[in-house]
Amino acid sequence: MRKMTPRLVVxxxxxxxxxxxxxxxxxxxxxxxxxHHHQMMADADAAGIQRSTGEYxxxxxxxxxxxxxxxxxxxxxNDGRPVYLNFIYTTCTTICPLSSQVFSMLQQKLGxxxxxxxxxxxxxxxxxDTPARLRAYAGKFHxxxxxxxxxxxxxxxxxxxxAFNAFRGDKMNHTPLTLYRAAPxxxxxxxxxxxxxxxxxxxxxxGSAAGT
Length: 212
Hints:
The protein is α+β, with helices and mostly antiparallel strands. It has a single domain, classed as 3-Layer(aba) Sandwich (Glutaredoxin), CATH 3.40.30. Helix content is 38%, strand content 22%. The protein contains 7 helices and 10 strands. It has helices at 14-26, 35-47, 73-77, 95-110, 131-140, 154-163, 197-210, and strands at 2-3, 7-9, 49-55, 62-65, 70-72, 83-88, 118-123, 147-151, 177-181, 188-192. Strands 1, 2, 3, 4, 5, 6, 7, 8, 9 and 10 form a 10-stranded mixed β-sheet that branches. Strand 9 (177-181) and strand 10 (188-192) form a beta hairpin. It starts with a strand and ends with a helix.
């Protein structure tokens, strides 16, 4: 992978995102009080957003979409639309709800143009995350057209994680990460940390302007 010099962006939206998770908990979703993950969240917020750009050698893998259809990962990724990608698992109670809430808010901000942008969430716990579970999870965050969740074999999930330098050995050790690419063949923008919906939208607007 080739990277340009990273740029640090100080995050300011963590409190808002955390409040969103509390709201979900108030609706009946129990929040797991794992000190390990909460400390990771606090550390990530304190560190801000680490932004970098680069290219990745991506694997040919078969994944399973939340509609139950087996698909080619590269074909899904290269369907011509700008793409955002993150990694989640449905029983996560800290990082993943925050990341998914951000994707939900991003779709709202995209408005009528949301179908023109592909949001991809890949499970890092595919043994538990069946397509049915992913559909239920997506519904909880009001995922609209254009936002797809994926599962598959453990080997396929790990291969995709490794390709994006996102594999941390165990789902409990994963860290907040969002990747964005304006079009097939262009460099990826990597945002390590809790990026907000406005920050993600800004990447899209910048990429769209560069392509005109």
